[in-house]
Amino acid sequence: MSVETQDVESDGAKVPLWNDPKVRALVSQAVLIGLVLWFGYEIVNNTFVNLEKRKIASGFGFLNTTASFGIIQTLVPYTEASSYGRVFFVGLLNTLLIGGIGIVVATMLGFLVGIMRLSKNWVVQKVATVYVETLRNIPLLLQIFFWYFGVLSALPNARNSLVLFGETVFLNSRGLYLPKPIFEDGSGAIWIALLVGIVAAFFVRRWATKRQEATGEQFPKFWATVGLVLGLPFLAYLLSGLPVSVEYSTKGTFNLSGGLQVIPEFVALLLALSFYTASFIAEIVRAGILAVSHGQTEAAHALGIKNSHTLRLVVIPQALRVIIPPLTSQYLNLTKNSSLAVAIAYPDLVSVFAGTVLNQTGQAVEILLMTMGVYLAISLITSMFMNWYNAKMALAER
Amino acid sequence: MKTKILAIAAGAAISMVAAQAASAATLDDIKKKGHVQCGVSQGLAGFSNPDDKGNWTGMDVDVCRALGAAIFGDATKAKYTALSAKERFTALQSGEVDLLSRNTTWTATRDTALGLNFAGVNYYDGQGFMVRKSLGVTSALQLAGAAICTNTGTTTELNVADGFRADKRRYEVVAFEKADEVVQAYDKGRCDVYTTDASGLYSQRLKLANADDHIVLPEIISKEPLGPVVRQGDDQWFNLVKWTMYLMLNAEELGVTSKNVDEMKSSGNPAVKRILGVEGNFGENLGVGNDWGYNIIKQVGNYGEVFDANVGPDTPLGIARGVNALWSKGGIQYAPPIR
Asked: What is the DSSP letter of B143?
């Protein structure tokens, strides 16, 4: 009897509101969200109130102000009369340049060293081990200083440059001077041909893969790609009447002028970043390869597949599934570590924008927000791409 | 419920603390914590440089020591934060330091948009160039195409850009964050030219491997009035820093030095009586003791003594008074009277 009464009570609407688990959950979550929002508002509001109180300028109007300082390496046209907004753009491109090239070099070197560490050749294996153990245990900043102040500044001074390849390439402590291609009128055809070549190569490769899967017939994919991507632009170059000339560096009062200058700050940073990151990538690659069961290699050998093909077609595709996720973090690290550029005057985003511009305008809040936003965006885009690649490489179960 | 109330209380407390920090009087804070927190350079001989015992010395440091003497009657009651050119304004704005005394040039932007106030000029400087003798350059006008090493975030960087831009001359600027890195890069041959304030060139030249292989070019391309900086919106503290510097100049003008200050206390000259606190209540008006002037001169010295001890002809820097001489001796150092 009494049991029945209790059941009715718990099913009915007589339970007080504050004892209803659903209501309690809703209320507590709403309160939490409210608190977080209020806290965020309070921080922003407090910042602005205090900035105003201290009479520090705020807002993004400063981006249109003339920068009036020079930058040593600019990928887009920039003069002292350009705006702070332009400085942001220049710094961003310099960061992307070092990050992009650094990732490519670190990956190639890392894969090479990782495979070397597994070599049966004693010398090769020990060389790789020493490389990894040395480089990953020395702080990156020291390595940057080592390359910059230790190695590159030991190059001959500007008046005694090393001359390579018959007066076309020069090397001194101010950088590497390469011939600079000048694209004249009519060179547009070359770029169009390059684009066409890349697209065509993509489709030819897809067609070749399909045909091989269907019929087993092989197609020289590599040479076809080279022919399309390099051959087509070259053909366009010949047909459009050789519209590209080359500008060589010439000796000036102090230094070489003209040509394409690769500044030592860039080289030092690139070497330090990619050598350092490569040592981590090598370990990731080694772990990935070791994760592929030895039976796979034995099976491939039993089928008569030669060593290089076994590595390329059997082991690495399986190892990549283990390699890609930690590799992504290394790519993100490399990009973020490039902000150490500030120590050796490479004009990256942190150095010129969050450094010089911040100092000239004093608008720390706006500038740091923009800079952090950029690094966040770069990292998220890299992550997205790597996740996509990881999904593509994942085991396709049938 | 309990947690909610706690959270709100905590949040309210945080925002109140933050609001308070912005409005509190700097001088009261200094008296409470017992020392002046001073932002100085990371090492510039003659201006702010730690000696072999780790004590900071230099002209800029003496401004801080004078404030310690004025407020506490003890010149050692000052602590120092070494700041790079890039960090200095943020450190002052955020209240990390009470005063920035770091060979900083007085400019319109810094005086307005940065929310700061310059309390005066303790050294009139100008930007110069240093090159290797072996280059055979004798004038800054021959520097077209040169690679120039400098500090990032300085007026120096801007002056170079202005100068070369006006003449449409090509140049390459390599800007480092730390002064030591600039010197090292110049010394290793990364640049043809090292540029900074002329006083800085004399000071940094001492750090080069072979100081005699380098010359400072005769041209001075800019005005660089260097002086201590405070935050806007605290007039009491601003006044104290300003008048501390004026007091040291007035003392030099009246011939009061750290050596004769005790005898001068009984001097018949009313102006001397006023700066030493024998007459009047100038110290009280500034929020410190009336013997502030006596303490500053006794423990730190007058402006001329400070100049001679740190950068003058008898020091390794060997800089002549030049424009930094008193107005009565052909210079432009001029202080309003204390009366």
From this structure: -
